[in-house]
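Give me the 3D structure for Transcriptional regulator.
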Amino acid sequence: MGNEPVLTRATQVARELADPLRLLVLQTLASEGPHTASRLAETLRVTGPRLGNHLARLRDAGLVDVEHTGRHAVYRLADADLGDVLTALLCYAGSDSGQESPRPPRDIVRTCYDHTAGLLGVRLFAWLVDRGALRAPDGRTDEVTLGRDPAALTEIGVDPSAITAGRRRLAVACLDRTHLLPHLGGELGRVILDTLIRDDVLRRGRGDRVLTVTPAGAGFLTALLPGLDLDVT
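Predicted structure for Transcriptional regulator (233 residues):
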């Protein structure tokens, strides 16, 4: 918002909200979380080019942010407070949407092929990048490389010197289907999952992609990733 006068900014926001499709885009992002452009187009039943024009306006107005992860462009609300604005607007207009919007499934932990996905996978990837163990993709590719401090991998039981990719890529950013943020794939993603299972942090469930967090694992993971709510019962 910078130093724009409040009335000027309010007028700009109102102008963008005046279009039904742009309002639907914002309502969808507020109630269901981040979406790729293709998923938004499918959900709202509009063509990609038409939606793209409206997304560009919302982005230029500072109402949505876009993050490029490999080949995907993921859109999300630029400010969580915008959800409250939408709720108040729809409530004033007489919509039943004044009630709390349904949230997407928590999807705490599961596998994606042979690596960790769900909320835990997303948080682990972000932690590895923040700690300097990995370097995130540059937006033009999904390739992940070792960062300035690969030794940080030892904090989750992985010896970086023992990892050999062979013909497989070492590490890739894999877009999580629920959270629309990257989790770690590739050979390193497989090694990390195998290590967490070996150390009894995670256990495989009965389903093909089901993982459960052990009580001891919950303690380890919440210490490693502050604020992570695993809801282990």
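The longest helix spans residues 20-32. Let me know if you want a second pass.
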